[in-house]
From TrEMBL:
<keyword id="KW-0378">Hydrolase</keyword>
<feature type="compositionally biased region" description="Pro residues">
    <location>
        <begin position="464"/>
        <end position="476"/>
    </location>
</feature>
<dbReference type="GO" id="GO:0008061">
    <property type="term" value="F:chitin binding"/>
</dbReference>
<dbReference type="InterPro" id="IPR001223">
    <property type="entry name" value="Glyco_hydro18_cat"/>
</dbReference>
<keyword id="KW-0147">Chitin-binding</keyword>
<feature type="domain" description="Chitin-binding type-2">
    <location>
        <begin position="390"/>
        <end position="445"/>
    </location>
</feature>
<keyword id="KW-0326">Glycosidase</keyword>
<protein>
    <submittedName>
        <fullName>Acidic mammalian chitinase</fullName>
    </submittedName>
</protein>
<dbReference type="InterPro" id="IPR036508">
    <property type="entry name" value="Chitin-bd_dom_sf"/>
</dbReference>
<feature type="region of interest" description="Disordered">
    <location>
        <begin position="455"/>
        <end position="477"/>
    </location>
</feature>
<dbReference type="InterPro" id="IPR001579">
    <property type="entry name" value="Glyco_hydro_18_chit_AS"/>
</dbReference>
<keyword id="KW-1015">Disulfide bond</keyword>
<feature type="compositionally biased region" description="Low complexity">
    <location>
        <begin position="387"/>
        <end position="397"/>
    </location>
</feature>
<dbReference type="InterPro" id="IPR050314">
    <property type="entry name" value="Glycosyl_Hydrlase_18"/>
</dbReference>
<feature type="compositionally biased region" description="Low complexity">
    <location>
        <begin position="358"/>
        <end position="380"/>
    </location>
</feature>
<feature type="domain" description="GH18">
    <location>
        <begin position="20"/>
        <end position="366"/>
    </location>
</feature>
<feature type="signal peptide">
    <location>
        <begin position="1"/>
        <end position="19"/>
    </location>
</feature>
């Protein structure tokens, strides 16, 4: 598996032949992830994509105007401003703002607005002002999804937005469904196509842990097992094109993440009998979804990887009862070549594209054998050995420092060491047993070669320094993990949290000035979570 950067670069290079745009969505919430999962605006490569989309803004349920989804991050921490600074490094880059997303779309406010010409007109005027005020180059509509009752209103909405955007040179795009039934119900395809600059087809999540069988969530071509379901990239794109969408305006969606299942049986070949979502990974912390960072870590740790010699789906990897399907470099290349051959106007990717998600994902396969039970190739990658011996488990069972890296610590469960990385700008503090601000920690780690370790400073925007930490008493009663694995609030102390590994609870503390935010499964500024 190659780095995520290689996947996106390959998409961009191949797409340059005919697919003139490479559209990349950036989830701003990755700012709140810890360690290598963090991707800030400064981490984005302005030359990797031709259009970046900031996700998300939301629709106010009272004014029906567009507003910041997270005023603290978007405004106070100047995340809009930092994102828009990408054009300083690439003046030709287009930077859009996405409205909606899955959660925001669940509210009936969109249907209410679409049904009212007055509310649509008010939104349109406000959207132009909002985009110009903040400096975005356009708007991406991510309403998932218009119903039959919304069909006429949605067509009118995009038509009205186009008329208002045209004099200002603002772009208008939309992320749309991959379901033929939903297309017919909610989209007047000729009208929508005429108004939009690009139609970003979400040709992924075609299968997921909500189904009884584990299957690749983004097939390129139909298979016999699909039984004409239309749940593959070729069928999805043809559904839009055959209904009147010009190929030049269609963007082919390629996922940069995997969908994961629990597959208890010996037969792992898709579609395989599943038992719901796989366990959450340490970065995404979402059962049933794994980032490339997590997938590559698993492959390097010895998961078996199986590829389809027919090239209809990307690979899948498994270990024990854990299973994930994803697109690798070869499949991204195949999808891009296919998009170019079909004359589609863009390739669109969903997934973070920054150094934090690219620097540790490379792996090398050393063995390749053809399986006898299926016409696929199985590859098992060895665990990495670079960097000297792995840190040992703490005798007390708590968090232990990594002697090679001050920003890394270890928790043990079932006799196995699990390595975690501190949030950006912090180091593991052995005297306290948790990650603390780097300026408050004396780092004496000695990596291979005997030199003293150094820590790269954070590139994130500066914020006021928080107060020094205060001592916290031990918990008065044992903590019971709500589930075997995950991150959970400490019911006795809002500055602390528990990391559950295989049912064992490990207590840890947030950096000084922060408190635990269960909504994002991460430490957050204390004032934001009411933790004082």
């Amino acid at each position: 598996m190659e780095p995520v950067r290689s996947l996106l670069l390959l998409t961009a290079l191949l797409g340059a032949a005919a697919a003139t745009e490479v559209i990349c969505y950036w989830g701003s919430w990755s700012h709140y992830r810890t360690g290598l999962g963090t991707v800030t605006a400064e981490d984005l490569d302005p030359h990797l994509c031709t259009i970046y989309v900031y996700s998300f803004a939301k629709l106010s349920p009272s004014t029906y105007q567009m507003e910041m989804f997270d005023p603290w991050l978007d405004g106070h921490l100047r995340n809009y401003e930092r994102f828009l600074s990408l054009r300083k490094r690439n003046p030709s880059l287009k930077l859009l703002l996405a409205l909606g997303g899955w959660t925001d779309s669940l509210h009936p406010k969109y249907s209410i607005m679409l049904a009212s010409p007055a509310l649509r007109a008010s939104f349109t005027a406000g959207a132009v002002q909002f985009l110009q005020q903040h400096g975005f180059d356009g708007l991406d509509l991510d309403y998932e999804y218009p119903s039959a009752a919304d069909r006429a209103g949605f067509a009118a909405w995009v038509t009205e937005l186009r008329a208002a955007f045209q004099p200002h040179g603002l772009l208008l795009t939309a992320a749309v469904t991959a379901s033929a039934a939903k297309i017919d119900a909610g989209y007047d395809v000729p009208a929508v196509s005429a108004a939009l600059d690009f139609i970003n087809v979400m040709a992924y999540d075609l299968h997921g842990p909500w189904e009884a069988t584990a299957d690749h969530h983004a097939p390129l071509l139909p298979r016999a097992s699909d039984a004409g379901s239309g749940l593959d990239l070729q069928s999805v794109m043809e559904a839009w094109r055959s209904r009147g969408a010009p190929a030049s305006k269609l963007a082919v969606g390629v996922p940069l993440y995997g969908k994961s299942w629990t597959v208890p049986g010996a037969d792992k070949g898709p579609p395989a009998a599943g038992r719901g979502a796989a366990r959450a990974g340490p970065v995404t912390r979402e059962a049933g979804t794994l980032s490339y960072l997590e997938i590559c870590h698993n492959v390097r740790a010895g998961w078996s990887v199986v590829t389809d010699p027919a090239g209809k789906i990307g690979p899948y990897a498994y270990s024990g009862d854990q299973w994930v399907g994803y697109d690798d470099t070869a499949m991204v290349a195949a999808k891009t070549r296919w998009a170019v051959s079909q004359g589609f106007g863009a390739v669109m990717s969903l997934g973070s594209a920054g150094p934090s998600n690219t620097t540790t994902t490379s792996t090398t396969s050393t063995t390749s054998t053809t399986t006898s039970t299926s016409s696929t190739t199985s590859t098992t990658a060895p665990s990495p050995t670079e960097g000297g011996p792995a840190p040992a488990c703490s005798a007390s069972g708590g968090a232990a420092p990594d002697p090679r890296d001050c920003a890394t610590y270890v928790l043990c469960a079932g006799g196995a060491a699990h390595t975690f990385r501190c949030p950006q700008g912090t180091l593991f503090d052995p005297s306290r047993g948790y990650c603390n601000w780097a300026s408050l920690v004396r780092c004496s780690a000695a990596p291979e070669g005997g030199a003293t370790a150094t820590v790269k400073p954070s590139t994130a925007a500066s914020v006021p320094a928080p107060p020094a930490p205060t001592s916290t008493p031990a918990p008065s009663r044992p903590f019971t993990c709500p589930s075997a694995d995950g991150w959970f609030a400490d019911p006795e102390d809002c500055h602390r949290f528990y990391k559950c590994l295989s049912g064992a609870a490990h207590r840890a503390a947030c950096p000084a000035g922060t408190g635990w935010n269960q909504a994002i499964s991460s430490c957050d500024w204390a004032a934001r979570v009411g933790c004082v």
